[in-house]
Write a structure and sequence with these properties.
Elements lengths: L7 H29 L1 E10 L2 E2 L3 E8 L3 E3 L4 E2 L11 E8 L5 E7 L11 E14 L2 E8 L4 E3 L5 H10 L2 E7 L5 E8 L2 E3 L6
Parallel strand pairs: 5-7
Antiparallel strand pairs: 1-3, 1-11, 2-3, 3-10, 4-9, 6-7, 6-8, 8-9, 11-12, 12-13
């Protein structure tokens, strides 16, 4: 039964208040992650699409997005990658710089080596190869698109093609990651993030 009369407006006001609170919480959590998360840089391979609703953006691919189980450790209970499933990917620093995938699990690892970090991701696709036999997966971390102000995407694209590019990523203690900006040929570019 639809509320009528004196209860209609308070009910609508309550719903609007709950929706506003949920939106504020999303913005607050994202802002907190960007300000207090551990900042790391990851090497990327860019592409250049465009979102007609949100303006120019650069799609970023990462070496850590393509995982082979033969190159990583995994928990004994890890039965493999399930498309759409959540995974926790442990990254270890390489001596020459950068990061490599050292461990994969369906739960957050209870212990980490000094300097390691964990990214929470979602499996996009998984496949098995026969020779050598191993399971592979494509994982997304929510840091694959970097939006730029309208009209500046082409300039950024030119810089990206000609220079080394790295992503500045904030990582929370739960493995959640947020893209803060880009480093292009040593120059830091940060734009206000869009949700």
């Amino acid at each position: 039964m639809i509320a009528t009369g004196k209860w209609m407006w308070p009910l609508l006001g309550g719903v609007a208040l709950l929706q506003s609170a949920a939106l504020f919480n999303m913005i607050h959590e994202r802002d907190r992650l960007l300000k207090s998360g551990r900042e790391v840089t990851l090497a990327v391979q860019p592409l250049d699409p465009r979102d007609i609703f949100r303006g120019d953006y650069v799609t970023l691919g990462y070496d850590i997005s393509q995982i082979k189980t033969s190159a990583t450790a995994s928990d004994p209970v890890f039965t493999g990658f399930v498309p759409g499933g959540e995974v926790f990917v442990t990254l270890s620093a390489k001596p020459e710089g950068g990061w490599l995938v050292s461990h994969v699990s369906t739960v957050f690892p209870p212990k980490l080596a000094a300097g390691d970090l964990v990214l929470k991701g979602r499996v996009q696709s998984a496949w098995t190869t026969q020779n050598p036999p191993e399971t592979n997966a494509s994982v997304r971390y929510g840091i694959e698109q970097y939006f730029v102000p309208e009209g500046t995407g082409i300039d950024l694209e030119k810089k990206v093609r000609d220079h080394k590019i790295e992503a500045i990523v904030a990582v929370g203690t739960d493995g959640t990651a947020a893209l803060k900006g880009l480093v292009i040929d040593g120059e830091r570019h940060e734009d206000p993030p869009l949700l």
